[in-house]
């Protein structure tokens, strides 16, 4: 049995699907009751609960062979949750922990990178066999159908700066391949595709594949990031997104596709491939 945390999120659902297609037994855990809908559609079991609740975490790791830990993105206590999962897994005798981190977690001015790096540190000190996955900026952050419908690709950052990308489905396939496999113990893998594009280049690809005119438009941060909210979660998410968009706009972000190519045994999905797949699904 493999535990997947944050299983009802975008990354979690892709990972659960990849595990199911590979014939694995999955326990899906998430704070959202919607995670129960995954039972019979990729997951064998579901646990609803908060990862900051020790009883929930103990129940989640009980009897599993491996854990794929996906931290809830932009959460102010993400590092604390990761620590709790790793500690409970160690106590339960889990044989392998796969942690979803991020490419270049040492970019600590970015709040989500801070949290991922803190969890990496806990994993490294856990004495458990581990694999750390460091995926790049997801292609899925680009809404192809909306861009085609509106004729514009709205980008809040990196309008002229180039970003590396990776297909989430490639990342999920890697997670399913490495979990429970001793050949991948003690490894840290950067997962990056071969595309390195600014907003104008992305828009041209969408336009070419859809045969519809699409142009890149700079979207003000105020239309993408809501203002400070009434909770700590809202404030943290606002600050994290502002820092990320500012960093991407100033520096972009880079990565290398060699490791992903090796792990997949094929070339990574390209942005052209992703756009064609998105249009076909729509």
Descriptive account of the structure:
With 282 residues, this protein is α/β, with parallel strands linked by helices. The chain has a domain at 2-138 and 165-193 and 255-268: NAD(P)-binding Rossmann-like Domain (Rossmann fold, 3-Layer(aba) Sandwich). The chain contains eleven helices and eleven strands. The chain has helices spanning 10-21, 54-61, 78-92, 111-124, 144-150, 168-178, 199-210, 221-224, 232-251, 258-264, 271-281, and strands spanning 2-4, 26-30, 45-48, 66-70, 96-100, 130-135, 152-155, 163-164, 187-191, 196-197, 215-218. The protein has a seven-stranded parallel sheet, sandwiched between helices. Strands 7-11 form a two-stranded parallel sheet. Helix 1 (10-21) packs across helix 6 and helix 7 (199-210) packs across helix 11 (271-281). It is globular and about 55 Å long. It starts with a strand and ends with a helix. The model has no long low-confidence stretch (mean pLDDT 94).
Summarize this structure as a short list of keywords or feature phrases.
282 residues, 11 helices, two-stranded parallel ribbon, Rossmann fold, globular
Order of SSEs, N→C?
A: EHEEHEHEHEHEEHEEHEHHHH
- The shape is globular
What's the mean pLDDT score? 94
Largest beta sheet, briefly? 7 strands, parallel
| CATH topology annotation of the domain at 2-138 and 165-193 and 255-268 | Rossmann fold
**Given the structure, what is the number of helices?**
11
Give the % helix: 40-55%
Annotated CATH homologous superfamily of the domain at 2-138 and 165-193 and 255-268 = NAD(P)-binding Rossmann-like Domain
The total of beta strands comes to 11
Q: Uncertain segments of ≥5 residues (pLDDT<50)? A: none
At the first level of CATH, what is the class of the domain at 2-138 and 165-193 and 255-268?
Alpha Beta
How much of the sequence lies in strands comes to 15-25%
Structural class: alpha/beta
* Integer-rounded radius of gyration: 19 Å
CATH architecture grouping of the domain at 2-138 and 165-193 and 255-268: 3-Layer(aba) Sandwich
- Give the CA-CA distance, first to last residue: 34 Å
* Strand order in space, largest sheet: 3-2-1-4-5-6-9
